[in-house]
TrEMBL record:
Alphabetized UniProt keyword annotations: Hydrolase, Lipid degradation, Lipid metabolism
Motif placement: DGA/G: 198-200
Organism (species): Trichoplax adhaerens (Trichoplax reptans)
A biological-process GO annotation: lipid catabolic process
UniProt-recorded name of the protein: PNPLA domain-containing protein
Source species taxonomy: Eukaryota, Metazoa, Placozoa, Uniplacotomia, Trichoplacea
Keyword Protease: no
Amino acid sequence: MFSSNSKELKVLSFSGGAEKGEFSIRIAKALNDKLKIINSNKELVEYFHVITGNSIGSILSSCLIIPSDKNKNKPKHSLDECIKIFDNDLHNINSNIGLKDKIKLFLNLKNHILTKKDVDFIHKMCGNTKLSETVVPVVITSTNALNAQPRLWSSYDAKNDPKKDFYLKDAIEASISYPGLFNSKKTIFKGDIYHDFDGGLIAATPLITALPHILKNNNKYAKDKAVVVSVGTTTGNTSNILHEIDNSSFEKNIYNIYLLSSQIQKIPFDSLFKTFIPNYYKLDFMIPQNIQHSIYFKASK
């Protein structure tokens, strides 16, 4: 998988999907432990040219590519350190969802039960790191709340256009804003305003929307030689209902959220990627869902 062939573009992808995203971290650790045997001084992300993530996968992928204070070319956090950050704050977020908030949501007295304060750890983790400053390029996906189209938060775009050099923390918040848990993420940057929901609403994997963008920005590499390692679930369907979910009625919101939830649980279509990317590796396709659930809940306690 990790040859020294300089013509191979290497892409690491972390999918979303709540408990599936949590299990993906364990899969990534297993891969990282094997690679540490080869080179104990090299971090997982340093084996790849670019990393992409959405939803819960955007948190892990971003943690891995924040530059060190001592060396901007080296990652600040190891994978094990990112897992500790992730596990601690996953517990904190879950503990903030109390019965009172659930009742308010049920009675349509509020349309979300978490706020930006509940994800303050993202600001602490990322600081003021911008997309142009990451150790390796990153592409994070979200869903435009106004037209349900994908939005890419890209290091490639950031380096070409200062108006797209967003803060990494804003990209993550946009990518994790799942309806019913969060309101849509509002980002104000250099005079422009963006409204976004969870990137997993379009597809659980960021590869559906991010891979064409990544290949376009790495055209010096042969596409048929690209190596793509996908950690997590693969794909869902698209639903054009996000523009109204912030303010729609309780009954309609319940139905909309049900539809969105069912999309993210769709069976993966990995053969689609194999058709275009022969060197496509899926690391958790055969993991039973009940095992994923048990690991997620254990980490949440």
